[in-house]
Protein: Peptidase S8/S53 domain-containing protein
Organism: Modicella reniformis
Amino acid sequence: MNIKTSPKSPQPWIGVAPEVTFGAYRVFGCDGSAGDDVILAAMELAFNDGMDVINMSLGGGSSYKLNPTALLSDKLVVRGMALAAAAGNDGSEGAWMVSDTGLGDLASSVASFDNAYGFYRSFTYGGASYPYAPSTAWNKAIDLPTTLVPIFEKDGSLSDGCDDTIYNGIDVKGKVVLTIGDVTRCFPMGSIENKAGDDLIAAWKKTPAGAITWSKDASNFMIEGGGAPSDFSSFGLDGDLRSKPDIAAPGGNILSAFPLAKGGYAVLSGTSMATPYVAGAHALYVEAKKSKPHGDVVRQVFKNTATVSSNSGSKTKTSVTKQGAGLINVLNAIETTSSITPDHIDLLDSVHFMKSVKITLKNNGKRTETYTFSHVPADALNWYANGQSFPSGEPKIEDDYATVKFSQDKVKIPAGKSAKITLSFTEPKKGSATNFPIYSGYVVATPENGNVAVQIPYTGLKGDVAKVAIMDTDKKFPALGKVDSKGKLSAAPENLTFDLSKEKLVVQTRIGSHTPNLSIRVFDDKQAFKGFLSSQNIGNAIGWAGRQKDLDDKGNLVFSNWVWGGKVLPAANATATVSLPSGSYNLVVASQKKLTKGDYPADFETFNLGNIKF
């Protein structure tokens, strides 16, 4: 359906682009996910309906730009559209996790920044006001008793309150209990910022008999750590070492529309909040320029003129793999009289290092302009500091930077003209190539007349990316298992004989980084290739695969179970599977290494799972 929005809002703010017409295309049911076919149909329908911008607030796995939604995204941008896609909310998972919907060459993968201010209900205690966010389960204003009772552990630290023995001798009936957050175990009525909790405990110790007063209405509050990249926002790179995400927008602690039955408004967080901000910003830019350039052209302007952020406590800028080109700045984008291409630089790894790159700087203004070039390094992130096979959830931040030399430190460009500059990069010196640190930074061109500076982000990986582990061997993957007729899964001993009428073989894989081609190859006892394993539950074991999360929402290790009943795809280009006869076979799990040609077995990480009889 098409809906005409209005600048008149029941709240004292308006949206990013209040007078656009937007189309709503439902791709999800009440629960679960949506298939690519449904998403592709909605994208095509938006194009056929004459939409100018597609907002894709969709989470998803991370993979390659060859996935269907990314491919269609590029085709639509070529035909005049713009596409903004959420980068994902897997920041706690570490590297290689940008969602695949935004991996197209021309689409915008959108990261999140935390809002500097939030619209919250609050309470007062000891003369100070504390904003709180009601839990999803509660989701309404709190109107409770006024007595506060913090719950402490024996060592004096604040407890999570989930162990009933901690309450021995403490009267909490009819009182407000303060605990430290543990969302995996507890369901609080509301939550406050960490610093606010420390301040509240200090106020309670000073005045334990103080009273809480609960507000009835919401107010504006400054958010602790606001204005910086959101912790939840996913990190790049993609499987081809391309720079993703592209751009960032406010996505943390955003006042948003919500189902009317649940209050109509709620403060929400996620890259799904940031993505429509970019879509709306695109509309503002088009309105200001009174033209409709293709989405990749507008993306370039946004990336050229974004505001780059630093992490709290860091002397350098936040990694490009976290914030992309930086926080979108629509005013800069509209007012700039300069442009710089390409809009990002992929230096790749040490083996394929792009040590010399040409850029083009254009003066779109009405008079001659002199530009000065500079290099702004960003944090280097080490995800494999301990030599492990699966990337850590939090990187070791290193002051390990590339160096950049310019063919000209300054350049004078007449109005409407361009200049080509050669950048000469040198890899960082400190970081160990065996730990594969990902470094990044920004090349900046600053006009001397005070006009808006323009920039290009760059990224690179030190070391040979083909040596980055794909299978999580630290956790003993790949492995063999078996599932019986009742569906019970158990480990399989070596050299086991399977009766496929009673049980099925299971190949277990756990991928810590992308592979262009994950395959499970079946050989007979004479080592003749018989085909690619065809799984009953996943499909044919051949094709690209993105990295997997470490743990699921319940804290269980994430891996894939390829249930096998004896069928194979005889060749990569075959259209039908065949059943193998009874006999002895060897199974080989083979993962193509990144940036390789794909010659088997030289370009693959291989694991022979031994002799199998069925």
